[in-house]
Write a structure and sequence with these properties.
Layout: H1 2-40, E1 79-82, E2 88-91, E3 99-103, H2 109-119, E4 131-136, H3 144-150, E5 157-159, H4 161-166, E6 174-179, E7 184-190, H5 194-218, H6 226-239, H7 253-263
Parallel strand pairs: 3-4, 4-5
Antiparallel strand pairs: 1-2, 3-6, 6-7
Length: 264
């Protein structure tokens, strides 16, 4: 009996010793992992040395949205290339109606939602007369078969890497609105949904309409808002201290007699 108890005690002691060695090994391994992570910068807020003085923070858009290419206002380039079927095709965007160029790809997950929107039968919400042309990269970079499967029936699709380069497209999905009358880019931007595209187009066309109105007013053309101009003239006269009944507003008999001749 005594021998059995002694054997059990020795066995228990050996087991405890082995467990102690195992625990020490695990703690040492854990310490090595933490030290390696610390050297790589994990757990530290400043992973790079701070420069003295103020530091410029680069401007950026939210993740997933491409930076504008910066071609707004530049001259537009006509679109030419191939259809997914291999036929040559060309669209003149520098004369005629406005054209929305949608730069898409077959491998972009965000683009797939927009491709599906084109297959929807509901209106796209573009301004009246605006033409939609989808542009993918050429067959050397894009699968014509994949593009053909994604394209809706009747959708204008052009495969051309050269057009991507001409408009400096940073990636997909990307959209460029071309003013067909002026032959210039009226607006550009990236979007993750078609609703965002509608807002981009609305903003671009609104800015252009405002610029046209300002240009006409600057050249003395009648914008059809005579009451507005008259009210503004009254405000300017009052600001100058000229109120109704001011002597400068009264015409002499000779000046009144000259009015018909001046108007004629």
């Amino acid at each position: 009996m005594t021998v059995l108890v002694t054997v059990l005690l020795v066995g228990l002691t050996v087991a405890v010793a082995l467990l102690g060695v195992l625990v020490v090994g695990l703690l040492r391994s854990h310490a090595e992992i933490l030290r390696s992570l610390h050297e790589l910068g994990a757990g530290r807020e400043d992973t790079a040395p701070r420069a003295a003085g103020p530091v410029d923070v680069p401007f950026g858009v939210r993740p997933g949205v491409l930076e504008p290419a910066g071609v707004t206002g530049a001259g537009a380039v006509d679109v030419s290339g191939e259809t997914p079927d291999g036929d040559s095709v060309q669209f003149s965007v520098t004369a005629g109606p406005d054209t929305l160029l949608a730069f898409l790809s077959s491998g972009c997950l965000t683009c797939h939602g927009i491709w599906e929107r084109f297959r929807d039968r509901t209106p796209l919400g573009l301004p009246a007369g605006t033409r939609l042309v989808v542009v993918t990269q050429g067959t050397e970079r894009e699968s014509a078969t994949a593009v053909e499967k994604l394209a809706a029936p009747g959708l204008a699709v052009v495969m051309s890497t050269a057009v991507w380069e001409a408009y400096e497209v940073p990636g997909s999905p990307y959209f460029v609105l071309v003013d067909g009358t002026a032959g210039r880019v009226a607006g550009e931007g990236s979007a993750t949904s078609w609703e965002q595209v509608e807002r981009l187009v609305t903003e671009a066309t609104g800015d252009r309409a405002r610029d046209i109105a300002a240009h006409r007013h600057g050249h003395g053309e009648d914008t059809g808002d005579g009451a507005h101009r008259e009210a503004r003239a009254d405000r300017e006269l009052l600001a100058a201290g000229i109120a109704p009944g001011h002597p400068s507003l009264e015409l002499t008999a000779e000046e009144v007699a000259e009015l018909p001749r001046a108007q004629g």
